[in-house]
Amino acid sequence: MLIVQNVTKNFGTFNALNNINLEFRNGVYGLLAPNGAGKTTLIKMLTTLLFPTSGSIIYNGKDIIKLDEEYREILGFLPQEFGYYKNYSPTAYLLYLAALKGIERQTAKTRVQELLKLVALENVADKKMKKFSGGMIQRVGIAQAMLNDPKILILDEPTAGLDPKERVRFRNLLTDLARERIVILSTHIVSDVESIANEIIMIKDQQILYQDTISRICEKLAGQVYETEVKYEEAAAFRKKYFSLSEKQESGMMYIRFLSEEPAQPEWRAVRPNLEDVFLHTYQDEVMLQG
Ligand SMILES: Nc1ncnc2c1ncn2[C@@H]1O[C@H](COP(=O)(O)OP(=O)(O)O)[C@@H](O)[C@H]1O
Ligand SMILES: [Mg+2]
């Protein structure tokens, strides 16, 4: 079990994270927040690349900074900016990393083969990576994070740059990897985590807003999400009055999904809130700024 206890991180006078408390058991955790919220900062502390300004991170009762090498041995990490050698093949690259990690050559060979099969790269195992797609590179990145069969696997924005098909493939792969370990992945894209995460963590204003299951998080908006049709010309006025979550235009009408705390009008259909609704509602200011 991994516990984040009262962790604050400042960069000089800038407060990036304020008094964070989290608990991780085996399962998939989706760290979901817009850019700049502090996901990478938190992940760097979880991987001992940064130290908290105050507070501590405890793994099975011991501070991860004191555990040091012992902790890094059970950790697998895919950084947001993943550096690889274009002229290497996946096999050569993974064997090289395995050697750096002190994995014995014969064990490494078997492990690399298994992993390349797992991430479906066995057909290009000996091809240079320079012609690989973003999704293929990402799978090499996941394979390197899995070299030591980590008990804690941390992936920072692993789906950035993937096309929709690659995203689906990534989600399936992750479900396979998630057995009997802690998997933490960060993203600013709701659909990347809503089908695979056991729990979602949302950061807002430097603090943890939620760490909970998707259904419990969605309950926060219960009874406030509706759909209705308005005439195209009336859409702008409607949007001024209610917070629009999504819109679809069809034969002169606008189908609007929106949020209202007022009592429902007869023509509104109450719908079950989803994670995207909560995300848009939570980060309305930030998300609008990012366009
Ligand atoms: N080394 C640093 N020095 C100063 N500010 C930083 C540093 N790293 C991150 N920040 C700031 O901390 C905030 C959180 O950044 P980050 O953790 O990268 O967010 P995310 O990964 O969610 O996009 C941002 O405002 C960023 O500019
Ligand atoms: Mg980041």
UniProtKB/TrEMBL annotation:
One of its GO terms (molecular function) is ATP binding. Pfam families: ABC_tran. Keywords: ATP-binding, Nucleotide-binding, Transport. Gene3D superfamilies: P-loop containing nucleotide triphosphate hydrolases. Residues 2-230 form the ABC transporter domain. It comes from the Bacteria. The keyword ATP-binding applies. Belongs to the ABC transporter superfamily. This is ABC transporter ATP-binding protein. It comes from Fictibacillus iocasae. The lineage of its organism: Bacteria, Bacillati, Bacillota, Bacilli, Bacillales.
